[in-house]
């Protein structure tokens, strides 16, 4: 009822607008003097125009819009209504035969005045309403400079003008044509590289990045300028998310370290990946881990018939199962607790669910922990686990087996890296033995925010007031986001023919000390407030990571971020010899594990004062390890 009354009031306004435009046409035509001899003509004109105008406004959809949000679509509706109403004027001029005749100027003046009154009335109402609602917010809120005077900046300004939290001082943009001009009444103050000077001169401590479509390098440079100037930096969501309705443009958040390390968006050959996964049974080992859980989330996009979650950690298994319940309830999910080294459990799982595609993400990955007192467990989990899952996949006719490997497998200096290289050799040997199941391996570096990674550790140290501990001033690492890693794993799996080691384009390495400094600045502190301490390299830790061994070369793939490494294949006797190692019942000590790894991974160079191990030791010692196996 309330809506009908409002629509009736708006219709009344539009009819009065038509009356005003029609009468004003005659006033203008006769120099603002009332033409008494045209009175009957004016009355007959209104008699014809008002019904037509009422129908025109209704058919144009003018009463679906809300005046307080009047915008370009409403102007288009006004123009449609005026066009129809003007046709009635043309008809009236053509058909009216009384004396005096209808002035020809009405054909031009009437539509112009009608548009002015109808559109102007709506704009004036919006301005009055917004002033009433938000006028009190002017000159309130935190002063802020917006970076980006494009589409994203315009959308953001409309939101910020209604916010009590922010007061926009101006914008910066690298487009020289915009300098000195205004966007929604706010000045474009200059280029992005002038941001530090603008922040000082305008006494502003907050910056919002409003260029979601810009290249990562551009956003990173703007953030770095603002952070170095001591500003707190915020960013807005991507335009595609705003347009899709997933978030509002006003969903401003603090810039975090992932934004500074951000990489260009990844595209994948969706039809190719979908053809591999649609209506298939997919098994993910380590389904509750950082990579495993993201793989599961990405898999849900491609409508697999069933996803089998295989995970040793009960709570992690519960979490990923609950994600499917909330976000992909239409997918059949089977949460299974189990150890990848448990051959009996794997046989039961494969026999019951017959997975066609297997993603093997289960692994021990923390380098220093696996180096001391846990070396044998690392090898058993990472190598024997891969062997057990791979054999089960072959035995039960799986189409594909994808091993999630690591850049630490390249010229390894630690047990974890050597064990992952050995796992790669296991997959290559299994593929050579029975090529019915395609075995593929995917190497990548550190993923942002994964469990045990450096970024969560630094965040905790900053929250405690410091210091931040960095092992060495020159240490660097490659980084990529977890979703990017998971998508490239799927892409590699879809394009693999069997036996390949896929190497991801990890971009440029990042110095960990620079990462720490940026995180300190992003948190609003200086290095005087949060100190950085160097603690020395940990057991098995390299100064830098490699994506290829010295003996490896790569060849291109159709995807620009994936290459295939040409690696030395495993020997024909490799699996039989390896089985002997895991058949022994005693646990091997750390040194014995390293000697065993040297036997199968010749590029392995243990750290920690053991360079002599790189040289072939006495045959009796290596034979003893083999005999115990």
Describe this protein's structure.
- By secondary structure, the protein is α/β, with parallel strands linked by helices.
- The protein has 22 helices and 22 strands.
- Strands 10-9-8-11-12-13-18-22-21 form a nine-stranded mixed β-sheet, with helices on both faces. A seven-stranded mixed β-sheet has the order 3-4-2-1-5-6-7, sandwiched between helices.
- Helix 7 links the parallel strand 5 (206-209) and strand 6 (232-235).
- Helix 3 runs antiparallel to helix 4 (106-134).
- The longest helix is centred in the N-terminal third of the chain and has 29 residues, at 106-134.
- Residues 239-247 and 609-629 have low confidence and may be disordered.
List keywords for this structure.
single chain; 629 residues; alpha/beta; seven-stranded mixed sheet; 22 helices; 22 strands; elongated; disordered C terminus
Write the layout of secondary structure elements.
Layout: H1 2-29, H2 39-59, H3 72-95, H4 106-134, E1 142-147, H5 151-160, E2 166-172, E3 182-183, E4 186-190, H6 195-201, E5 206-209, H7 216-228, E6 232-235, H8 239-243, E7 253-254, H9 257-260, H10 270-277, E8 281-285, H11 290-299, E9 306-311, H12 314-327, E10 332-337, H13 343-353, E11 357-360, H14 367-371, H15 375-395, E12 400-406, H16 415-433, E13 438-444, E14 446-447, H17 454-463, E15 468-470, E16 476-477, E17 479-480, H18 482-495, E18 501-504, E19 510-511, H19 512-522, E20 532-534, E21 553-556, E22 562-566, H20 574-583, H21 590-600, H22 619-628
Parallel strand pairs: 1-2, 1-5, 2-4, 5-6, 8-9, 8-11, 9-10, 11-12, 12-13, 13-18, 14-17, 15-20
Antiparallel strand pairs: 3-4, 6-7, 16-19, 18-22, 21-22
Helix pairs in contact: 1-2, 1-4, 2-3, 3-4, 10-18, 11-18, 13-15, 15-16, 16-21, 17-19, 20-22, 21-22
């Amino acid at each position: 009822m309330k809506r009908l009354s409002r629509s009736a009031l708006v219709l009344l306004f539009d009819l009065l607008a038509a009356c005003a435009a029609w009468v004003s046409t005659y006033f203008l035509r006769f120099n603002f003097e009332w033409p008494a001899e045209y009175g009957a003509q004016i009355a007959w004109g209104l008699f014809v125009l008002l019904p037509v105008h009422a129908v025109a406004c209704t058919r144009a959809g003018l009463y679906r819009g809300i005046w307080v949000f009047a915008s370009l679509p409403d102007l288009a509706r006004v123009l449609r209504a005026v066009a129809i109403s003007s046709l009635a004027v043309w008809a009236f001029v053509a058909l009216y035969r009384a004396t005096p005749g209808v002035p020809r100027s009405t054909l031009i003046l009437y539509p112009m005045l009608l548009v002015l009154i109808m559109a102007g009335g709506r704009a004036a109402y919006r301005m009055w309403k917004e002033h009433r609602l938000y006028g009190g917010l002017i000159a309130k809120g935190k002063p802020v400079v917006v970076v980006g005077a494009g589409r994203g900046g315009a959308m953001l300004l409309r939101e910020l003008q209604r916010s009590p939290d922010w007061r926009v001082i101006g914008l910066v943009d690298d487009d020289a044509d915009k300098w000195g001009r205004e966007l929604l009444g706010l000045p474009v103050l200059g280029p992005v590289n002038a941001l530090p000077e603008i922040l000082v001169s305008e006494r502003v401590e907050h910056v919002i990045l409003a260029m979601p479509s810009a290249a990562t390098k551009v956003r990173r440079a703007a953030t770095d300028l603002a952070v170095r100037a001591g500003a707190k930096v915020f960013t807005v969501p991507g335009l595609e998310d705003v347009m899709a309705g997933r978030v509002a443009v006003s969903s401003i958040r603090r810039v975090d370290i992932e934004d500074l390390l951000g990489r260009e968006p990844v595209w994948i050959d969706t039809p190719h990946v979908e053809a591999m996964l649609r209506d298939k049974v997919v098994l993910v080992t380590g389904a509750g881990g950082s990579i495993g859980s993201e793989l599961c989330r990405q898999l849900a996009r491609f409508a697999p018939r069933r996803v089998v979650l295989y995970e040793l950690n009960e709570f992690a298994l519960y979490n990923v199962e609950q994600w499917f319940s909330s976000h992909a309830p239409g997918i059949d999910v089977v949460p299974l607790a189990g150890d990848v080294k448990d051959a009996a459990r794997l046989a039961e799982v494969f026999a019951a669910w017959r997975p066609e595609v297997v993603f093997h993400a289960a692994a021990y990955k923390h380098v220093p922990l696996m180096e001391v007192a846990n070396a044998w467990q690392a090898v058993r989990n990472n190598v024997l686990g891969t062997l057990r899952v791979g054999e089960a996949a072959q035995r039960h006719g799986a189409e594909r087996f994808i091993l999630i490997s690591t850049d630490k497998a390249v010229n390894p200096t630690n047990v974890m890296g050597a064990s992952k290289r050995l796992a790669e050799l296991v997959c290559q040997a299994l593929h050579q033995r029975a090529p019915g199941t395609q075995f593929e391996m995917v190497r990548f570096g550190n993923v942002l925010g994964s469990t045990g990674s450096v970024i969560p550790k630094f965040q905790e140290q900053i929250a405690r007031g410091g210091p931040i501990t960095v092992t060495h001033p020159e240490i660097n690492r490659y980084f990529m986001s977890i979703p990017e890693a998971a998508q490239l794993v799927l892409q590699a799996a879809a394009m693999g023919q069997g036996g390949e080691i896929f190497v991801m384009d990890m971009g440029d390495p990042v110095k960990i000390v620079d990462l720490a400094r940026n995180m300190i600045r992003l948190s609003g502190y200086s290095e005087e407030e949060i100190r950085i301490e160097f603690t020395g390299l940990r057991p098995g830790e390299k100064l830098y990571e490699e994506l290829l061994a010295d003996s490896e070369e790569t060849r291109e793939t159709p995807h620009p971020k994936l290459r295939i490494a040409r690696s030395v294949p495993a020997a024909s006797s490799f699996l039989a010899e390896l089985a002997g190692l895991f058949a022994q019942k005693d646990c091997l000590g750390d040194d014995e594990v390293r000697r065993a790894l040297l036997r199968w991974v010749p590029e392995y160079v243990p750290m920690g004062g053991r360079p002599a191990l790189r040289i072939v030791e006495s045959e009796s010692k290596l034979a003893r390890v083999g005999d115990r196996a």
